[in-house]
Amino acid sequence: MFARSIAKTLCQPSSPPSTLPPTFLLPLRARLTTITTSTTTTDPNPPEASFTHLPSTQTPTNATPTHHPPPPPPPPQTQQQSHRHLSRRSPLPPPTNPNLSLLPLLAAQPPHYITAHLHSRPYLLTTGDTLRLPFHMPHAPPGTILRLNRASVIGSRDYTFRGAPYVDEKLFVCRAVVVGIEGEPMRVVVKTKQRQRKVKRARHKMRFTVLRVREVRVLPGGREEEEEEEEEEGRR
Prior knowledge:
Elements: H1 2-11, H2 28-40, H3 79-89, H4 103-107, E1 113-118, E2 121-126, E3 130-132, E4 145-147, E5 151-155, E6 160-162, E7 172-183, E8 187-192, E9 199-204, E10 207-218, H5 223-235
Antiparallel strand pairs: 1-2, 1-5, 3-10, 4-7, 5-6, 7-10, 8-9
């Protein structure tokens, strides 16, 4: 049997060199070589691969830089936010009073009266009035000139200027001279208790400062007008 199979193989035409006999007829070394050769062989004409679906891991060297659009501008500030910004950085300008345009008319109509406030007490005064204060001013001897810089009302015969609550001291001048110091009669207060013979007498005498209003005038030009007049009087 074995001789016949050998004879048949010899009689058959030779196979092309590319074909190999079955692997079970080859030795172990040739079998390993065949497996290795079959796994390492590659197709000479491989199919073209498509890279459209694969993410690119490396950036090309000659790629142009991408320009990102500038960030959008911040939203405009509202009116309330702008007022807060001004209040933190700088104080708001004082509100303008439309009645200041009538001050020249008030100044051109003397005599003037004024409601001056001393220790939160109002006093209606005009030029030449005498005022006895209900207290004593120990640091103002007779002959001292005082300026009353707190007033709520300034007026004349046809015009009245009211403050909120007080008029700006740059818009008027009110000077008073300390005439003297008056004292009331001595007061004796008798103090005793029931069913006791002890009697206590307390003596008390109050003093008052007397003022005479020397000048009441309206300054439509503010404090600058007063300073100019004082300089002129000093030159004389």
